[in-house]
Amino acid sequence: MPTDDVDVPLLQMRNVVKTFPGVKALDGVDLDVRAGEVHCLLGQNGAGKSTLIKVLSGAYHPDSGEIRWEGELLHLSGPQSAVAQGIATIYQELDLVGGLSVAENVYLGHEQSTAGFGRRTLTTKLVRAHLLRLGHPEIDPSMEVSRLSAAQQQIVSMARALSYEARVMIMDEPSAILDPEEVAGLFRLINELKQSGVAIIYISHRLEEIQRIGDRITVLKDGVTVGSDLKVSETPTRELIKLMTGRSIEYAFPVRPAIPADASVVLEVDGLSRPHEFFDVSFTVRAGEIVGIAGLVGAGRSEVVETVFGARRAHRGTVRVQGRAVRNGSVVAAVRAGMGLCPEERKAQALLLQEPVYRNVGIASLTRFATAGFTHDRAELRAATRELDAIQLPRGQERRIISGLSGGNQQKSVVARWLLRGCKVLLLDEPTRGVDVGARSDIYRIIRDLAISGVAVVMVSSEIEEVLGLADRAIVMAEGRVVHEGPTEGVTERDVLDLIMRGDAA
Amino acid sequence: MSDVEEERPAGVGVAPASSGSPHGRRLGGFLSTPAGRHTGLGAALIIMILIGALTAPDRFLAVSNLRIVLSLAAVIGVLSIGQTFVIIGAGIDLSIGSLVALCSVFATTQFTQNMAGSSTWWVMVLMAIVVGTIAGLVNGLLIAYGPIVPFIMTLATMAAFTGLAEVVSAKKTQIVQDNAFQGFFNGSVFGIPAQVIVFALVAIVAWILLNRTTFGRRTYAVGGNPEAARLAGINVNWHTVLLYVLMGVCAGIAAVLITARTTAGSSNLGSGYELDAIAAVVIGGTSLFGGRGTIVGTIIGVLIFSLLNNVFTLNNLDSSTQAVAKGAIIVIAVLLQQRVARRDTRT
């Protein structure tokens, strides 16, 4: 009977439950995915998206509920059985083997062979066909994967999905590692896949992307489906945010108070250069001011901030804090001079994942809570808790192991680290990356409050709106050079885009 | 790194023992806490004692026997404590066995030949420790600023220190005929052997250093996430140097203990001790990836091996069987710890 029904979903999940000790990660999830549609999966961090992906890719077995494939009950015994069924996952952190060639990666695990001997010519031919179908014939199948860009590696990952004749492709935040131009390419590709009948489950934090390519949306919150089969064209963004957060929020940026005319210059960067990264970057930041650095990925923004902080050695140029030159290439000197950095890659660069929150906060101020090298654990806990309270981290989190916190709360903890240290200059690299929509406004408010208290703030962001909404002054970078510097008042997103495009063309 | 959970449900790792979870899981949750892990190790220790008491009832539980067990544990114990710091700091030191020999022959040769009768025994003790410190400094500086991978660097110095020890001693055993030295390190206070007292003192200082000082906090940070430690303003390279210096000091102390026990300095001393020390540290629950580990765990690890040794000797079993048992214990201990750790992160 179901086969007669044209509208039977390709993939269907009903009331799927997955429990871990102490927590229900999925508590009754429904999902209907039809062939040839882009189905967006939305939800805050911890809503259950990752668990859902792992159930669909065969990595987790659901405790109860059912998964149907073209109406038939489907049992996934493991990752291999999922790909064999035609469900492929393009992970955020691409799961390719860097030392192998493109062709070898595509057919990894199901090599084309006769009696154990690999058939290289056939493999190359097949891979070339997949790449052509994906619109990227320029990728050489014999190329080593580690030498490809992130965007190209993503294409290889998709070619692998095609090699399994995948009919459902799960894409976990595919745009996170791409710059806007590459994102446009990705969207073209998704459209073509869709035309050929492939269903795509698309996961992204960026709501505007969903408006551009999505057909239908399923929203998860706390492991439950709170919105299913919403048509993108008929669902306003505000409604989606409301479903995800349980409250309706606007991106409310905090009010910008005028900076006192006598506010002193705290940070002076003069003629900073690093070969192949950025050239002759100069700017100043006054106490109480937020300076935002906008630009595309690869414009050299993170590199500038890390060099200011001494994590990279400047080839040329100086950095001064309150008039005093800071020793080049020394984080220790930068911290001593009163700088703090919240780096872009939180897990890799900022967090001590095995330690409790308060120790992550206290790590930059160890000597303050010690006499002759002996630590005062309680004093540290008290002081860290005070800072965490000030930035409104929910109570009772300070003793938890930090890896269990949400992205937003982890970010707040890293900010608290520098608050506790009492920094004069705070450098923030993508402060809202991996932070869910609800926690963003908190982060914005914290940054503004910090500035009001007299800290000089430098913020790098890929979201132009964020720079314009939060910062007092904006620096626009393109191709390693500063192409614009000025107040954000009255500047529109369009203006900044024009500047970037002109800078790139130059 | 691929199995890092993006979306870990709330409450993980804090109180895994939730309502309705089966009994085994609750036990697993307890065992994954530091206290629980030590309880598991303690249980293993008690099993060793029971085996000893059952197979050689009269001799095993004799006070004199326990004194011997603890005395023999002292040298490896002091080395293992140094190694614990290095491994928590995500390093490893393979050179310590050779270093024990070098410290021992240098100190004894200088003392008996060049300074014969002109100085007191503690000068010899000091010399052993100074040699250990310098050797640790060499290891640390090259590892941190070379930079050279710790495994390779200490593999190289392992060979070099053995060679140096042979050169210094001219491959001869240097008998130490200093009654005061022997009397001090082979004597006892209130019935407790001096070797055990030294081991205990080192353990106490190490525990305080690791748990109550900024040095200890930095050690965990540097081992757990060196990049995060660096960006938090910690001088990671210098801290790494200090860890190997500390290891060198421990090797110097271990050399003094073994020299007193054998009443001689020799380039053959300490051979293979680096592996015994690493085994004890790993059994004690310290992660070879760094950032995790305890002194108490290491001490229990050392005692387990020491008891194993004793039980085999008392039952007149040969050392080959003993080596096999030792290997089996390492594998079982690591498997059990991985089970617990996995449950800890999967949930």
Model description:
The complex is a heterodimer of chains A (506) and B (347). By secondary structure, chain A is α/β, with parallel strands linked by helices. In chain A, 33% of the residues lie in helices and 26% in strands. Chain A contains 17 helices and 24 strands. In chain A, helix 15 links the parallel strand 21 and strand 22. In chain A, helix 4 (120-133) crosses helix 5, helix 13 packs across helix 14 and helix 14 packs parallel to helix 15. Helix content of chain B is 73%, strand content 2%. Chain B is built from 15 helices and four strands. The radius of gyration of chain B is 21 Å and the shape is globular. The two termini of chain B are 17 Å apart. Chains A and B meet through strand 2, helix 1, helix 10, helix 11 and strand 20 of A and helix 10 and helix 11 of B.
Summary of the model, kept short:
The complex is a heterodimer of chains A (506) and B (347). Chain A contains 17 helices and 24 strands.
* Mean pLDDT, all residues of chain A: 86
* Record field, number of beta strands of chain A: 24
Strand content of chain B: under 5%
Q: Tally the helices of chain A.
A: 17
Question: Please, what is the average pLDDT of chain B?
Answer: 85
The value of Rg of chain B in angstroms is 21 Å
